[in-house]
């Protein structure tokens, strides 16, 4: 079975644009989400110790998502470097 070249080119281009958009949007909203999430955790209508538990959960979740976006950004940079070498 042969690879459908036009469809492959369109899918590859769309994937590159999605990765570009995710990286740029994340760069823009990273600090807003971090500070806003912590403030949101402190404003929750629960007892004080639980607010800190939720804030710790937010920090762990935010750190994991930030690392994943960082890996996508590194992949994008490596992909651009390979193209420039050719």
Number of domains: 1
Average predicted local confidence, pLDDT: 83
Beta fraction of the residues? under 5%
Order of H and E elements:
HH
> What is the molecular shape?
elongated
Which key terms come to mind for this protein?
single chain, 86 residues, elongated
Characterise this structure.
By secondary structure, the chain is mainly alpha-helical. The chain has one domain (5-85). It is 88% helix and 0% strand. It has 2 helices and no strands. The chain has helices spanning 5-42, 48-85. Helix 1 (5-42) packs antiparallel against helix 2. The model has no long low-confidence stretch (mean pLDDT 83).
Short description:
By secondary structure, this protein is mainly α.
Task: Give a topology summary.
Elements: H1 5-42, H2 48-85
Helix pairs in contact: 1-2
